[in-house]
Structures are given as C-alpha cells and as structure tokens.
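Late entry, evening session. Most of the bench is empty. Finally got around to the prediction I had been postponing all week. Sequence below, unchanged from the version circulated by S.P.
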Amino acid sequence: MASLKDEINAIEWFTLEPDGSGTINEAQKALRDAKIAALKGKIVDKAAIVNAKNQALVNQLGSLAAINNGVQLMATASEQNLKSANAYLLAMHAPSFSGFTEADMSALADIADQCVGEGGEGVLLARGLLASATWAVTEYDDACVQELGEREDGQAPVPVVAQGSLQVFPNPANGTAHIVVPAHLQGQPVAIRNLYGHTVALVETVPGQPSVRLDLSGYAPGMYFAAMEGQNTVRFVVAR
C-alpha cells in the first residue's frame, strides 16, 4: 500500500511544455495540496502523541524519584532492596543511559537472587530489570514463599508473597502469568497498565477464587503494572 507521501509525489499537477513554459492542472494541484495538509496533520498528531507519552513517563518516574527521595532511613532489607531497585529503574530511563554496567548487573543479581518472601517487592523489580536488560527468563528459588493449596482445576498452586497483597507470578513472565488477589478484593477487576500509564487490559476476578490467569501472548516485551483499588501497584515484566 502506497504511503500518503508516495501518493503526493505521484500526482501530476504540473506539465512542462516543449517551449519551456509550464501548465498547472488546478484540480490535481488542489488534490496535492489537500494531501499535503493531511500529511502535516498526521505529523502534528504523531508529535502530540509522542509528547504525551513522554510526559506521562516523566510524571511516573518523577513520582518514583519523589518516593525514593522521601525515604531517608531504610531500616529493613526489603526496604533497602526496593530503594536500590527503584534507583536502577530511574537510571534506566535517564537520557544518558547506555546500559547497566557489570557492577550494576551484579548488584541487581544479588537482589534478584533473594527469596521474594523476605526481600520484598524490590526483589521482583530487580528480576524485572535484569529481564529487560538481557531479554532472558531466569528461574529463581523462592523456598520461603508460601503456596496456596491444590486448585480444583488440577493446575499447580500459585505462590503468594504475603497474605492480603496483590501479586503477579512468575515475574518476569513469558506467555502466562497468575495474578494473586486478596480475599477482600476478589470480584473486582485488575487494571493492567503499560509503562506510559495506559490501561491495556482489565482482568476480571471471581469471588472465592484467589488467583486468575493472565494471557501474555499479545503483550510486547517490557514492564507493566497491575493495580487494584486499595492496593499498591505491582510491577512485572513480560520477557521473550
């Protein structure tokens, strides 16, 4: 299919005569002018969309920086993990970022290798950052994590980091993930948002069912957020 630019170039609105004079086809010129105006409009619209996405990302990262800067004393290992992982997330989106150094990767791996039940959300974020940097899915040993009992459908139980908290497993995920929903919120939808804050899916949950399957086959690789009213937003990564 020809692009709008190709269509404009194909319009024969001017004819050069043998004597050197030129003849303008007014109808074709009007058509060309209209297509040029349409092309300019698309360029402006695209620029507006890009600017809006950039601003949304800046706002989101600014909020994250404010949270990190507002926490001066991090007493527990899980809080320190989250603060460190958030700092790497901010660094990754800086204009000067050219990739994690070997020391950065080692520090992230140290956090990612911790049991998520003890190391907290920072462990999940570190795993997501490593997956974003390497595009690889790594299996982690979370022996300290509790598990739900066997499900009626015969599928494997879904691990839970903490009772009463929204979680996404595995993280990073490839193909399929499970969203673990607190009992008091089961029946409410889970919003899945991309890095720009746009809602890409609303996942329905069922009262009495502690987890719901999330099909990731149509998701582009990258970082996403799962959110429910009254719960902290959970970050997870889709890897390929």
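Two things to note before I forget:
The radius of gyration is 25 Å.
The chain is about 40% helix and 20% strand.
Will write this up properly tomorrow.
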